[in-house]
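Inverse folding, one chain.
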């Protein structure tokens, strides 16, 4: 499974890169707004830090605007992936980008049928939002399972990018049901390391070592 960090804060990406297992980055307009900087600035800087797919989302809601904006973003770096909303215009624009060899990430996906449309138009990634589905009492992980099943039935190469991940259990479950990628905030990446028995075990090893040195 690939791990992406979901943030527009460059310092967080620098910190996570130290661990050695970050494969890419996702952003969205809300995350970029939190950074207080322009999308172009943030994306250009991220491309200098991470050598992997970096998703940048269009703001336009009409196909022509999406194509214009996305084509500009794609010029920043070959690693830039154009993030498009799962609307009629977004899906049409996805086809244009696939036909022109530009990678896409179709976002705001909440159903397997939406994911099927994205795959049919050659999306590189589909982003089902599992946390937001859980928030309204639906089963977010079930959507990932259904998309996996459908994509495997027909051999679609579109990668399933589990998004809107809120905690480490989401990451475990997404890996169990075969999502290709999990994108998560720094807070969740840190949770992946944690187990109380690791902490208490290490504490005991260090205490025993210190005691043996004092003899
Ligand atoms: O980047 C898309 C997604 O991960 C957003 O997550 O927590 O705002 O639902 P969230």
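Residues assigned per position:
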């Amino acid at each position: 499974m690939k791990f992406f960090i979901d943030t527009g804060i460059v310092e967080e990406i620098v910190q996570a890169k130290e661990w050695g297992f970050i494969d890419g980055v996702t952003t969205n307009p809300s995350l970029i707004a939190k950074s207080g900087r322009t999308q172009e600035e943030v994306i250009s800087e991220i491309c200098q830090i991470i050598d992997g797919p970096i998703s940048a989302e269009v703001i336009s809601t009409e196909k022509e605007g999406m194509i214009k904006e996305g084509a500009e973003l794609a010029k920043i770096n070959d690693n830039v992936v154009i993030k498009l909303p799962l609307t009629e215009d977004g899906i049409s624009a996805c086809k244009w980008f696939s036909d022109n060899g530009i990678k896409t990430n179709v976002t705001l996906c909440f159903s397997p049928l939406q994911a099927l449309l994205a795959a049919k138009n050659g999306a590189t990634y589909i982003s089902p939002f599992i946390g937001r589905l859980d928030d309204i009492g639906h089963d977010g992980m079930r959507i990932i399972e259904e998309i996996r099943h459908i994509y495997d039935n027909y051999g679609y190469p579109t990668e399933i990018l589990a998004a809107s991940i809120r905690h480490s259990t989401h990451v475990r479950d997404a890996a169990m049901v075969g999502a290709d990628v999990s994108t998560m905030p720094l807070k969740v990446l840190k949770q992946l390391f944690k187990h109380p028995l690791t902490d208490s075990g290490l504490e005991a090893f260090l205490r025993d070592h210190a005691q043996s040195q004092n003899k």
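The beta strands are 2-6, 24-26, 54-57, 80-85, 104-109, 125-128, 159-162, 181-184. The chain is about 55% helix and 15% strand.
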